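Inputs:
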Amino acid sequence: MTTQEVADWWGTAVSRIEPNRIELRGTPVQDLIGTVGFGSMIWLMVRGERPTPAQSRLLEAALVAGVDHGPHAPSIAVARMAATCGVGLNNAMASAINTLGDSHGGAGQQCVELLDDIRERVAAGVAVPAATDEVIAGWRARGIRYLPGFGHRFHTRDPRRDPLLALVDEAVTDRTVEGGHLRAARAVEEALNRGRSRPVPMNIDGATAVIYAELGFPAPLARGLFVLSRSVGILAHAWEETGQGRRNKGPIPPSVRPTFLG
Amino acid sequence: MTTQEVADWWGTAVSRIEPNRIELRGTPVQDLIGTVGFGSMIWLMVRGERPTPAQSRLLEAALVAGVDHGPHAPSIAVARMAATCGVGLNNAMASAINTLGDSHGGAGQQCVELLDDIRERVAAGVAVPAATDEVIAGWRARGIRYLPGFGHRFHTRDPRRDPLLALVDEAVTDRTVEGGHLRAARAVEEALNRGRSRPVPMNIDGATAVIYAELGFPAPLARGLFVLSRSVGILAHAWEETGQGRRNKGPIPPSVRPTFLG
Amino acid sequence: MTTQEVADWWGTAVSRIEPNRIELRGTPVQDLIGTVGFGSMIWLMVRGERPTPAQSRLLEAALVAGVDHGPHAPSIAVARMAATCGVGLNNAMASAINTLGDSHGGAGQQCVELLDDIRERVAAGVAVPAATDEVIAGWRARGIRYLPGFGHRFHTRDPRRDPLLALVDEAVTDRTVEGGHLRAARAVEEALNRGRSRPVPMNIDGATAVIYAELGFPAPLARGLFVLSRSVGILAHAWEETGQGRRNKGPIPPSVRPTFLG
Amino acid sequence: MTTQEVADWWGTAVSRIEPNRIELRGTPVQDLIGTVGFGSMIWLMVRGERPTPAQSRLLEAALVAGVDHGPHAPSIAVARMAATCGVGLNNAMASAINTLGDSHGGAGQQCVELLDDIRERVAAGVAVPAATDEVIAGWRARGIRYLPGFGHRFHTRDPRRDPLLALVDEAVTDRTVEGGHLRAARAVEEALNRGRSRPVPMNIDGATAVIYAELGFPAPLARGLFVLSRSVGILAHAWEETGQGRRNKGPIPPSVRPTFLG
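Outputs:
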């Protein structure tokens, strides 16, 4: 057995730890503490390089937007219920993060894939509206009625949409980002709304997907970044619930529970 | 059954969601997007009020310091192994966060409790050195040899300690924080090193506990904030591992595994 | 680096895997498949030896009793909600199992500790009623009002209690178990009910704790075995929910949700 | 708001809980305790009806076979590492179960799908060998080299295969099961081995998939049942590790860890 094989098995470009020395993405940790903001640190750790201030600002806007959508979201409800069961705060958070799956936390990832698909067709010479129609038709052909990142069962217009897109517009103007994913997303929105009386506007997943994609994050990281974002709300709710002293909180208050539900 | 009872059961001061309106800690989300950094947003969501820029800077320094300590830490090793098992990125992250328990992610929480205990005795009129000796004696009497936040099995001097404490010193000077927890932690360090040839310096858990406690976070939130911090390293490692294409990665490379370990 | 050190690090008496050979607790797997029931296999894996048929029957009765207590239990509600979020069935189960903490799945463990404490005092020569009073007084002195394993917020008499205790009575008669933990549990029940008009009978956690303790399982395994038991209900509910086709199920039906809960 | 809507939202055919009454799949729990084995209880809870003794015996054989495959399997390694981090036994188990994803715990599910596909073609009139070739060609066309349920990176012949298939043969003979999935699986094995010097025999996932499919479980339950089975090994290993007193166990023993891995 050689040390080299073990080193290779656990080899990583993310961090290097030696006695009294910690390098994160090649930089000694003491050069990062106090000089790099938390948003920039997320970028550095995931991408291996530091963002510009403008890139970091855009990333942080997306992270801020997704922290919470109230206690009816499964991720938040699970966090609050788990926090009453006598487990550590990290365990309550893990149970909740674990629910951010394909249909809860995965819409952003799927929307980046959709936008990337349009972008690739455009890069191959297809005009944006035609590329958009092709891609939408492909999703429809797979039986998918609601495109990820568009429409909302609760808000007719998600209040997080406009401020996020305004920031992307600014970032296009100052050349922080190129703008192709934004154009693709707006083309999808237009196509979806063509001839409809009730619009299907881009939602939070769509708007953050535009940001993550414009900033060059691959699709799966849209979910990873959403996990970091929603974890903040998960912590806030789990902690608030802890302070209320309930034990083994169920979904329905006992006082109004149907008798046969225990 | 009344709507009020259901509303009370899921009542929260963290967020309020109405059609086309999202308030987080009382502020419409559109007023936060693009104006509040991610570190400040964490503070706002958990505490209910916004930090000053100096407070936010200190918090972010602590969050940056804890993101990663290499792939031998259970949290990171679990993240990398889980990422090879065909689960979502959020699931791999949850498995890892779930290991940040009393002995992995809980040292910061315990250290805040230790420092709070000293602070309370000092507030009651005991001198810092005497209060410190009393508290250390109490931990020793409970059979605890290694105090949480002090000493490291790997680093003789954790490289994250000095830059973090330097930031707290600055924050005391500019009156961002009061300094009592810092004094208590330094008193513990002195007491532990008295008459020893090999020092037991404050470690990352101790230094971040000082920051969280100086900023007014209750002890359990030291763990909660560490979860947010370490989640960044967990994501970075899980994502890197995903790119390497292994399936069902075990702890030991198959090439050097003892025959009878399969 | 030596193979031996790696072998020691991952050394185990549970299983030994060689090419074309799998030993579980020292027995080749082919000698177990088809000859050992699932309950006996649980015992063998956890304890290292096979149970008698009478021991296995008693263990299985306890495992059967705890599988489910309806969808208002956090473990089951979380399983059902997680199953609608686009994660694997194993992930939904993990989120749910993760909630079986000190106050949800830990009562059995705590009850075994309570009974063990009485047993030790009795072994030291104290009479059962006196030992029981001492132990109860100790819990009361720690500010604990509800003893683990006794009373139920929903059932005045848990329907699982009597059939379980009847099986223990039989097992005492046929000398499968000694009976000391059963006597201790009954003494606690009597002490709690002395002079009360509304009884506080032993509940499911108490009755299964008696069984696990009589069978010689250490206290923490009462929680471990409950996890195996409740996992069955968790699977059944998660699977049923999957078939109903909801997406991102929250705790309250949208139709009756207060407007400001989203 | 009506009670009915809440009742519908949490409606279930699995269990009905009323004061002093617990029905599981329509049977009062007191009629199940002591009369139904744990394997039969699993069947009852998941399917809604009780198995015959022969069905139950076959199911239990599959559950016994999958409990453990040594500490290098991610599920087991994660359980052991998590158990050293100061979390509850249920949390350590949850972290481990959470890794039983598409490539670790999902092979059985995928193999049932593969076998069902062959069965449907046979039911439509195609001969078994032709149907098998069609289905294999379909998987190959999707770029999948290793079919789920066949071949093993470690065993040339998995020792669990033959005793499991012998039990299915018996069950076909005594008409407990029909045998179509077994024939399909054997046809796949033959097709894979045609003209090869090194055979690719059915493995544990294939053999248990045959059992679950023959017993009428839908494909996703092959994963759900594997979770119940592997949870036993997960508990046994987590508990053994707990007894060894390590803290924050990493994948590599510190003594042989490359210096720069910390």
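Remarks. The longest strand of chain A covers residues 15-18. The CA atoms of residues 111 and 148 of chain A lie 5 Å apart.
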